[in-house]
Specification:
By secondary structure, the chain is of the alpha/beta class. It has helices at 12-24, 47-51, 61-64, 119-122, 129-142, 155-167, 187-200, 242-245, 291-310, 351-369, 385-391, and strands spanning 3-8, 30-36, 71-74, 76-81, 86-90, 95-99, 102-105, 109-111, 147-151, 172-176, 203-205, 210-214, 217-220, 225-227, 230-233, 237-239, 256-257, 270-272, 277-278, 323-327, 333-337, 347-349.
């Protein structure tokens, strides 16, 4: 009987994990299934482009995994029972229970509303492709007239505000953040950021946390009303509550608690990668939710799975976070090195940084969308428990 591996989520971490495992595990011994609600691989870190009407390359999962042996299950995950080793899914017309021997949890994250009233009812966001398309439709319906309020001061907020401003120059763009915009950046990078906001005519409200979102704007904690024809909520991400309800050990924020090899500390056979995992990086800090973190945690999780199931030593992947790469429209960007005293760190700005980021994203996307590249001629089979104990080297 084949060992059943189920990968939940076809984002950067999940798509990479399924493809990598297919390249290195014997099809006679392993059956790999990837579960995703949408039929396409979505470049999540380009969703601000989708929201402004730009068209991204179509990447169907069926085409990505053709010839790999990976089965694509188009369904939405509704629950995970880690004790029974089952996953509940639905495609809108039917529900099903999928059984697994090994689970890769890579469902990622969604928008965090922080309990602010009105966010779910009145605000738009860009944490998923359907949400980005809804915002696109709203911006098109505005016809170049009106005000867009962007709530948040992180990378998504900055990228969203500048992308909307560049593609809709006749709209008034306002950004409200609870802290200082770009306060974590070094002097050079922050100067460039503020100059860019000034060039686009984006109004900035710093130290203005939002207490409530209404249909026609939002109220700050200080009682000020910021009128808007569309409010875009980009105030951070949150892990889907499925993880916490699954029986897996999780952190206070719902991220899955794992060891250094991305194994669940509470349930053997469950591995996590991407935004849903809580792990400490090489700098002693938790890895942030990011494309880079998805890559490193996905690499470590798959290395651990292959080692644990085939009796081989588990390779150690460095868990590092090098810097912030922030697009400011299509022709401008900032690359800020992080770590240590950021005030002493240099930054790459402008067209060079924009081209560099575009190259990184294209390379990352190509890698996950071409899982058969470099397909090895010899794949590893499932080891017996005795073989695993004899051959595996503790991490």
């Amino acid at each position: 009987m084949q060992h059943r591996i189920i990968v939940l989520g076809a984002g950067y971490a999940g798509t990479f994990a399924a493809g990598y495992l297919a390249r290195h595990l014997d099809r006679d011994d392993f059956a790999i299934t990837i579960v995703n609600a949408e039929p396409d691989f979505v470049e999540r870190f380009r969703l601000h482009q989708v929201a402004t009407g730009q068209t991204l390359k179509h990447r169907p999962l069926a085409k990505i995994f053709a010839g790999t042996g990976v089965r694509v299950e188009l369904a939405r995950v509704t629950a995970v029972d880690a004790d029974r080793r089952t996953v509940a899914v639905t495609d809108g017309t039917r529900t099903d229970q999928l059984e697994y021997d090994t689970l890769v949890y890579a469902l990622g994250s969604t928008v965090a509303d922080h309990g602010v009233p009105g966010v779910g009812e009145h605000a738009f966001h860009i944490a998923s492709r359907p949400a980005a398309l809804r915002l696109r439709d709203r911006l098109e319906a505005m016809g170049g007239n009106g005000t867009v309020l962007v709530v948040g001061g992180n990378l998504t907020a900055i990228e969203g505000a500048t992308e909307i401003a560049e593609t809709n120059p006749s709209l008034k763009i306002v950004l409200a953040t609870s802290g200082e915009l770009g306060g974590w950046l070094g002097p050079k990078a922050r100067r460039h950021l503020l100059r860019t906001f000034d060039r686009f005519g984006i109004a900035i409200h710093e130290h203005a946390p939002i207490d409530r979102v209404a249909a026609d704007g939002a109220f700050t904690a200080q009682g000020e009303f910021l009128a808007a024809d569309a409010t875009v909520w980009t105030a951070g991400f949150a892990v889907h509550p499925i993880a916490a309800a699954s029986g897996l050990a999780v952190e206070a924020n719902g991220q899955i608690t794992v060891d250094r090899q991305m194994r669940s500390v509470s349930h053997p056979g469950v591995y996590a990668a991407g935004d849903a995992v809580f792990v400490i990086g090489e700098n002693g800090q938790p890895l942030p939710m990011s494309c880079a973190s998805a890559g490193f945690t996905g690499q470590q999780a798959t290395a651990a799975i292959i080692g644990d199931l085939t009796g081989r030593a588990v390779k150690r992947t460095g868990l590092i976070y090098v810097g912030n790469h922030i697009s400011l429209g299509r022709k401008d960007a900032i690359l800020q090195v992080v770590g240590g005293d950021v005030r002493t760190k240099g930054a790459m700005c402008g067209r060079t940084a924009a081209g560099f980021k575009d190259g990184i994203l294209k390379t990352a996307t190509w890698g996950v969308a071409n899982p058969t590249w470099g397909l090895p001629s010899r794949r590893h089979g499932l080891a017996t428990p005795a073989t695993r104990a004899a051959e595996a080297v503790p991490a």
